[in-house]
Design goal:
13-stranded mixed β-sheet; 3 helices; mainly beta; five-stranded antiparallel β-sheet; single chain; elongated
Length: 557
């Protein structure tokens, strides 16, 4: 880090200009100050991450920021700033007869009143300086936000400084803007260009050899898993987003994908999804439907919880790998697909470590290339002494068969049965809701992928939610689907409407409020009007349900 460079105090006087702030002509409890010394205007506090200066000697604005142990500097010449328009009126402020000019910037109007007679020079906003001899005494944004100078004083106890020297890295305006944004939050890389493919020769690691921050491949290569630490940035975040990048490494088809979390084992008698990845499907409890079909690990039971699905996504038809194999004039294929969704309520930040995984169902040797990061955004409005309530996260069911390549059954029970889960709440929960994700599958004309089907949810026998999940916007994502088939009517397969998903998109959950649910034992039921199978072609539904909320003491049985 470059050391701060202090400006000498014994040669040049320092002047402070103080401004009151108003909103809609009402004074608010906030003020602004700028400092002027030796033709330099200091616009920021010494403690601010980004520093801003107006250099009147060299006719430039300078902004600096410390990021990743480096100092970056942006230099903006005065002649590239917004130009002003002279207005007719004048007014007296602090005894100075002030001229009026206006600026137009990004569809905003900024009115400025300034004097050239004051010893101090400058403006509280470096974009709006009428000339280098001006001191702005009043600034009005769009007629309703106002800064008005209330005093100009000489100060003796202020030490202006600049936090750069010749070693600072000069970047352009767009690069500096990127650095500012990146400095405001923390990116936690989870997976980096990992291949998810079908590889039956993958060796399953031994449980006693598993370590934190190492990537493991399971279920014949179709799942990547990693145990990560819940960092202070995650624990203290205001919002957490999962950002997934995906591109084809040889697979041409749209595939089911899921990003999910599984707990680390705390007790020997607790079964987790990791047990099945390590030792096989027999480790998972079995759900048996009315026709004796067996489904492995799909509901919460004593000693077992299904995974917490944080992203439900679908790969596009062959983006990246097939771009040059399916060239069409005026079709500029995407290089990759980026999925990003807020997952704050689903990340167990009161844990020290969790397993996080990505599943893509495919039998292709090339498969797909994925990267995943968690973006943690710090809290801006947290009051001093305020304590965060603990998150309540209780996964109830998931028919997403992340071990499809290990012969885990598809979620096709809804044709002849209702999915029923018993659970118990032992605490008072604030803002309790069920996050319900649902997508229908069966890829022929009469299959549930292409036929709207009713979904209903009942809690303790009372209907709390119903919807026909359906997406009609799939044509929006045509340029992410180079390998999609083109039909004689001009449509592409990726254009077709589907049961709540499109090739190359996320399927966000529905938020179902359950605030009336009290402590005690309950039962939740999911009813889907699943259509009949045709020969070997089967319908199924990928659904997941997680209870979320806030509480002081988590104790769910």
């Amino acid at each position: 880090m470059f050391p701060f460079v202090l400006i000498a105090q014994n040669k040049f006087d320092v002047y402070k200009v103080s401004y009151d702030q108003y909103e809609n002509e009402k004074k608010i409890n906030r003020s602004t100050e700028i400092f002027f010394q030796n033709q330099i205007v200091f616009l920021t506090k010494n403690s601010d991450k980004m520093q801003q200066y107006i250099d009147l000697k060299n006719n430039v604005n300078i902004s600096t920021i410390a990021f990743e142990d480096k100092i970056f500097k942006k230099i903006i010449p005065f002649d590239s700033l917004p130009s002003s328009k002279k207005e007719d009126d004048t007014r007296v402020i602090l005894g100075y007869n002030c001229e009026h000019v206006s600026f137009s910037y990004f569809s905003n109007r900024i009115d400025i009143w300034y004097t050239e007679k004051a010893i101090a020079k400058g403006t509280p906003n470096s974009n709006y300086l009428p000339n280098k001899n001006a001191l702005v005494l009043k600034m009005v944004y769009n007629g309703n936000q106002t800064l008005v100078a209330n005093a100009i004083t000489k100060v003796k106890n202020y030490q202006p400084f600049v936090n750069y020297n010749d070693g600072a890295i000069v970047v352009d305006k767009s690069e500096f803007e990127e650095i500012i944004i990146n400095s405001r939050y923390k990116k936690l890389a989870i997976f980096d260009n990992e291949i998810i493919n079908f590889d039956p020769n993958r060796t399953i690691p031994k449980e006693n050899e598993l370590v934190t921050d190492k990537v493991y491949h399971f279920s014949n290569g179709s799942v990547v898993l990693k145990k990560i630490k819940i960092t202070p940035e995650l624990k203290n975040s205001q919002a957490i987003f999962a950002k997934l990048t995906c591109k084809s490494n040889g697979d041409a088809y749209d595939r089911t994908g899921s990003v999910f979390i599984a707990p680390t084992k705390k007790k020997d008698d607790i079964t987790t999804l990791l047990d099945a990845y390590l030792y096989g499907l027999d480790r998972l409890p079995i759900y048996i439907d009315n026709k004796e079909n067996k489904y492995q690990g799909i509901i919460k039971e004593e000693g077992y919880s299904p995974a917490i699905e944080i992203l439900s996504f679908f790969t596009p038809f062959g983006v990246n790998y097939f771009n040059n194999k399916r060239k069409i004039n005026n079709y500029n294929w995407a290089k990759e697909v980026i999925y990003k969704e807020e997952v704050s309520s689903l990340i167990p930040t009161d844990e020290d470590e969790v397993w996080i995984g990505i599943f893509i169902g495919n039998y292709d040797a090339g498969g797909h290339i994925v990267s995943l990061e968690l973006d943690a955004y710090p809290s801006m409005d947290k009051k001093e002494g305020e304590v965060d309530r603990k998150k309540y996260i209780a996964p109830l069911f998931s028919t997403v068969n992340t071990m499809e390549m290990s012969e885990q059954n598809y979620g096709g029970l809804f044709a002849n049965d209702t999915l029923k889960v018993n659970f118990e709440i032992k605490e008072d929960i604030q803002n309790l809701q069920l996050l319900y994700t649902t997508t229908g599958h069966g890829g022929w004309d009469n299959g549930d992928e292409f036929v709207p089907r009713m979904n209903k949810i009942f809690v303790d026998g009372e209907e709390v939610f119903k919807i026909i999940p359906w997406r009609t916007d799939c044509a929006t994502y045509r340029l992410s689907n180079p390998a999609s088939g083109n039909f004689y009517d001009g449509l592409s397969s990726s254009d077709l409407s589907r049961s709540n998903w499109c090739p190359g998109t996320l399927t966000p959950p529905y938020s179902i409020p359950l605030s009336k649910l009290q402590k005690g034992k309950h039962v939740i039921e999911v009813v889907i009007e699943q259509g009949p199978n045709e020969g070997s072609s089967t319908n199924h539904w990928n659904i997941s349900g997680v209870l979320v909320g806030q509480l002081n003491n988590l104790n769910l049985k």
